[in-house]
Amino acid sequence: MIASFVFPESSAYRRHLKPARAHISRNRSQTTADSSIASESTVYLSEPTMQTQSPSTSAAAAAAADDVETTRSVVAQLDGSDQRSANDKMATRVHKRKVDDFIFGKVVGEGSFSTVYLAKDKHTGRQYAIKAYEKLHILKERKSDDVRREKDVMNILTNSGSSLFVRLSCTFQDRGRLFFVMSYAKNGDMLSFLNSMDSFDITCTQFYSGEILLALEYLHNLNIQHRDLKPENILLDDNMHIKLTDFGCSKINNLESEMETLNISNPNENNNGKERANSFVGTAQYISPEIFYEIPTSFSSDLWAFGCIVYQMITGYPPFRCRTDYLIFRKIMNLDYSFPDEFHEDAKDLIEKLLVLEPNKRLGTEDAKRYTSIRAHSFYKGLNFDTLLKTKAPLSCPDNNNYYQVPDNLEPGLGPKQLTRLLVCDELYGHSSKNTNTSLPSTSDAAEGQSTTSCEK
């Protein structure tokens, strides 16, 4: 039997969310002899759609005998539109979700340590992106701190109410896996659109890079670094506005100081018991040069990646590219990149001021109010940042009839039978968020020249 994998609530999460935390109640009828469940961190829900009626006492007792994860209940943190009394809100209970509450339709993404599925809540019919981690893999690779940090960051962002980030609806676990239930952006990631369109025009680049800048302002004002900013981690919602995702490499600065990072050294490396001065995170084409010089990462590292993305939007490819990661790193350290002929002059000036080897000399790092100098750059002349999120996006939504819907007739859960079905579909049809067939996913174009380096902390 695999031991229960639990996350103690972090101090960073408490500090960020103390003013907005919902009152926690326990269902007294759902007790268990397993004391380890008491230390499992509570999930604060921001979406009332996850609410279901509490099970009866007898049903709860039976469930507790089968799965200790179902013995916890939390009080929903309801939005301001609910006019019920405070006492009624406090009494509202949310049933702890488990894997059998979801119908898993297909794989929509894979990372170094996780798989993301498109799934449907069988109670509400709502579709979610569910990220699944293998517990043994997390323990083997010593990634428990990273997963907990990702959960903390997503809770902070979800409770902040910003529309610029993927929302975390809840988390749960079974004996072998951890699950993050997240909002689903059905229009996929920005890289897919870049690949299909070759590049964005200047108007489109101004709009989407402007939204990314707003997201970085918001994120950095919460003292959070993303540290893996790239087109694959920029999703497009129903209205074709952006949502940042994948916070597995992120860092909360008030918990981890600018002079050090949480890092697990290579067990085969002799460092006399000391950790490296810096941690290696991100994806090769977007990694900032300070990572190679043992300079601690900072918010400026996200600005470097932002400059790379602006370049890629206009050209269709990142500024630093080569056959291997090693050669890419050499190009980054030597600032070895060039602009195509007739490249937009204002965009060129912006990128040159962001892709600077010294982190504290990048545009925006010395602003009294965060990134006002970037907003004021001539490239963004005429762009109203204050109304940007309410402005109609320049990219059009694809035909709604082409979106994949998880069929209702599939068996819920993620056991051997369901995994086999998902594996066969994935091998035959690949990952995609859009498909004209209502039962099977379609092939998606692979990113050419995209070399991915997973987080190593």
Automatic annotation (TrEMBL):
Keywords from the named record: ATP-binding, Kinase, Nucleotide-binding, Serine/threonine-protein kinase, Transferase
Gene Ontology biological-process entries: intracellular signal transduction
Polar residues bias: start-end ranges: 27-41
Family annotation (InterPro entries): Kinase-like_dom_sf, PDPK1, Prot_kinase_dom, Protein_kinase_ATP_BS, Ser/Thr_kinase_AS, Ser_Thr_kinase_AGC
Protein kinase domain segment(s): 102-380
Coiled-coil regions listed in the entry: none
GO molecular function term, any single one: ATP binding
Highest rank taxon of the organism: Eukaryota
Positions of ATP binding: K131
EC nos: 2.7.11.1
UniProt xrefs under PROSITE patterns: PROTEIN_KINASE_ATP (PS00107), PROTEIN_KINASE_DOM (PS50011), PROTEIN_KINASE_ST (PS00108)
Catalyzed reactions: L-threonyl-[protein] + ATP = O-phospho-L-threonyl-[protein] + ADP + H(+); L-seryl-[protein] + ATP = O-phospho-L-seryl-[protein] + ADP + H(+)
Stated family: Belongs to the protein kinase superfamily. AGC Ser/Thr protein kinase family. PDPK1 subfamily.
Protein name: non-specific serine/threonine protein kinase
Organism listed in the record: Cinara cedri
